[in-house]
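Researcher: Structure prediction, please.
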Amino acid sequence: MDIKHNQLLRFTTAGSVDDGKSTLIGRLLYDSKSIFEDQMSAVENTSKQKGIDGVDLALFTDGLKDEREQGITIDVAYRYFTTPKRKFIIADTPGHVEYTRNMVTGASTANAAIILIDARHGVIEQTKRHAYIASLLQIPHIIVCVNKMDLVDHSEEVFNKIVRQFEKFSSKLYIKDVRYIPISALNGDNVVNRSKHMKWYKDSPLLHALETLHISSDINKIDTRLAVQTVLRPQREGFIDYRGYAGRLQSGILRVGEEVAVLPSGFVSKVKSINVGTEFVEEAFAPMSVSVCLEDDIDISRGDMIVRKNNQPETSQEFDVMLCWLNRAPSKPRTKYTIMHTSNEKKAMIKDVVYKMDINKFEKDEEDKSLSMNDIARVKIRTTHRLMIDTYRENRNTGSIILIDDTTKETVAAGMIV
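Model: Predicted structure follows.
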């Protein structure tokens, strides 16, 4: 297959501090030969300076000075690599409790999450927290990598015990697809190449699992949602009367001749033509960026949504959201924020905090109404105008929002509509 046409898989890594996330990614890049020579030289030199024999694989992702000095991951590190079968974007997210917001940011667009567990320690509170966030963000595929198997003599019994521990608590979460792989990131066992030390493990190594994950069905192909970003009026020869509504298909399929409704007005028309760039096509599907012409002249502007006539999202000014507070400054009651939803920008406020989630204990706190950095809570949001919304479980694109502080222009929260 031509690499240009390879599917793109986004995946995130999560785990407790020192579980080996950065080492695992370094091993993936190193063994799949996805590292440039200058990067390799720089890492080899830094490894020597630290007195390490060979290469410190974690240095391939720990890009900030503080990260390299402390040996921890603080910010989300994005890395890109490709194999003959697939293209990948990796988000290496921090393991510390105080960087929950960074994990939410890195995992929000992921097709898969790799959750690392130290074979010596088994399932701990951090593991449960990361699995809960992965479930909350509706990441379709979870790969549990039991790392440092070399430190427990590559024991099948230890691996099976951890699988049972994870299955026991994850049965309470909404996770569609979970698979388990015993690895040693430091030595490369079951990362890119099959391990010689764990012949009892019969399934594929991690890279092969990532290359063969079925992700085509992860995109919602049923609910057609075209969020209009701009109106195209070229006014040049051949396009004098052209009026195209351009945007990204958030989900679903759009076909020429199909009857559609324009929200929030509710006017109905038919699709006259669809452009992808300069090419006319008979149908388009998510996540393509398109320009659509309708048979009727309807007043449509940025923030409107083109949907199928018989399959429409809810239009509402008030709805519940699972919110992750990202800002250092706490929330303030009755403060007005700018809410961003698809291509829509409106004013909004947090009407009520229904409960805060203690994600270490899976308990709800209905008394505490304040929101501080890294808090996850169910809140009621009220907007000045109606938004066209789906639940996050049905549609990750039309079911997600962010809140922006009007004074500082900082993104203060990200949320999933429930």
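Model: Residues 1-5, 64-74 have pLDDT under 50 and may be disordered.
Researcher: Thanks, that helps.
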